[in-house]
Write a structure and sequence with these properties.
alpha+beta; 28% helix; homodimer; 4-stranded mixed β-sheet; 7-stranded mixed β-sheet
Chain lengths: 285, 285
């Protein structure tokens, strides 16, 4: 196990296995070829070609979203998609552009549409200020994805119509009882991006990363049942665990590596330094 | 002018215009096709094929370096290379690997070997601690590259046999009179990488980035004549100037953008945020 292994496994995407999903000439998703083939019978919504799938449903965002939701229900019946039913994501060619449609979160990897999330590194300084401790959460055994794994202080997907800062404030309250007066000191510190094939399709993920130095009288408390326990761990120990194990949720390894690089916990003389420093930000084509 | 323009111009590399330079089966450089052709007459040192140039000079590092230096002298006579004569860089397939040879800095773009540098963002906090000012240097009119442009507090290439931290300490002393007791508080914060075609060839550059919060009684003073003047500028003003002008040295724009992303001076609602956050770390193939 090495830092590199986490980066490689989050970037196991192989373009040869995928065709683009387009709308109005712009790419909005990445369909694995078996998933593309499963869309042939919905010819009023998708035109499936050999090298491209085109969204052909017409109407406004609500109408297109409804048409696609009917397809998603059929895919659920086929066992190809596990619908979440409580969370939809905006689908657009680029961050900040108006959405083409909204999609149930459970169907996002099937279509390979880009998904955005927020991750918060909570930390405290010790002693001389150069030694850091990181807040680490343990995911609930009931989570659909990566139960029981270790996690950041706060993390969540950006639902349709919401922004990054806004999602952070909401998730910080629900997941760790961080009050608005504290979370507004969180510093946006970049984005981690990766592209990964899973059993369901393609995860084309962008994580907006924030850092928050927590005061000595703060202790996180989970409210939504998604995290069962929080612990403050020496950052050096967290990093050792990332290097040697898969104890952390797959993409949290990348967020922690990004934190480690930005805060000098990893140094240029580490043999993996450049691979980590340049491997966490997959270009967004 | 936009942030994006700086990233694009530092990554104008076109693989179709280049062939790999290899040694022992590993790529060690990127030769523009006209530069590759100019090596045909040195058949005891290079085997020039249509899709690859292979280093064939044999011997230890010193012997290969001497053989290549003779080629470089001939290229200087042809006007293809401007030799520096006071600085050589290690050439290796990867950072941290033993060098294959050492090369005069002036010949690095001709061969397109990867070059490593250190850049230091010097900053001070103001008022509530959330407002930052950045130290900005003005390059001497006598500099060979980008005279009179604005620069980081400290920057320099990593010469053969030296490490990143070591180079930072040396350059900090020469360029800004930063004493060893202060520079050891500099935090390594990642790497900026880009690949750029210039008049001379290919710049395949990796910049190790450091941040240093300077104390209120510190003022930088240049010793080596490379910087004529230092100024403390509000970070927000520096960022505006990066967005609107080419006042900063070409690659310093990227280092400042990286600083801006890491310190929350740029935020996720900026339309260029993701392009900047993912565009500063070209993967090292």
């Amino acid at each position: 196990m090495s830092f590199r292994d986490h980066i490689v496994s989050c970037n196991n995407y192989d373009p040869a296995r995928v065709v683009p999903l387009t709308a109005g000439g712009a790419r909005i998703g990445l369909l694995r070829r078996d998933n593309a083939a499963a869309l042939r019978r919905f010819s009023d919504v998708f035109a499936v070609g050999s090298d491209e799938v085109e969204l052909v449903a017409s109407g406004d965002v609500a109408a297109v979203s409804r048409a696609i939701d009917i397809v998603v229900d059929a895919l659920v019946a086929d066992g190809r998609v596990a619908k979440w039913r409580n969370e939809t994501f905006d689908v657009a060619p680029r961050w900040g552009m108006p959405p083409v449609f909204c999609l149930d979160r459970g169907a996002v990897p099937f279509f390979g549409t880009r998904a955005y999330g927020v991750h918060l590194n909570g930390y405290m300084r010790e002693g001389d200020g150069d030694t850091l401790r990181l807040w680490v959460g343990r995911r609930s055994p009931d989570k659909q994805i990566e139960p029981n794994k270790l996690d950041n202080l706060v993390a969540g997907g950006i639902g349709n119509g919401h922004g990054a800062d806004e999602t952070l404030v909401k998730e910080a309250e629900e997941e760790a009882s961080i009050p608005p007066g504290l979370i507004r000191h969180a510093v946006p510190a970049g984005a981690v991006s990766y592209r990964m094939e899973t059993r369901l399709g393609i995860r084309d993920d962008v994580l907006f990363v924030y850092d928050l130095e927590t005061p000595s009288d703060f202790a996180p408390e989970n409210r939504d049942g998604e995290i069962v326990h929080f612990e403050l761990m020496p950052a050096s120990e967290v990093l050792k665990r990332v290097r040697a194990t898969s104890d952390f949720k797959f993409n949290v390894n990348l967020v922690i590596l990004d934190f480690a690089v930005r805060h000098g916990l990893l140094r240029p003389d580490d043999p993996e330094y450049l691979e980590v420093a340049t491997g966490l930000h997959r270009p967004l084509d």
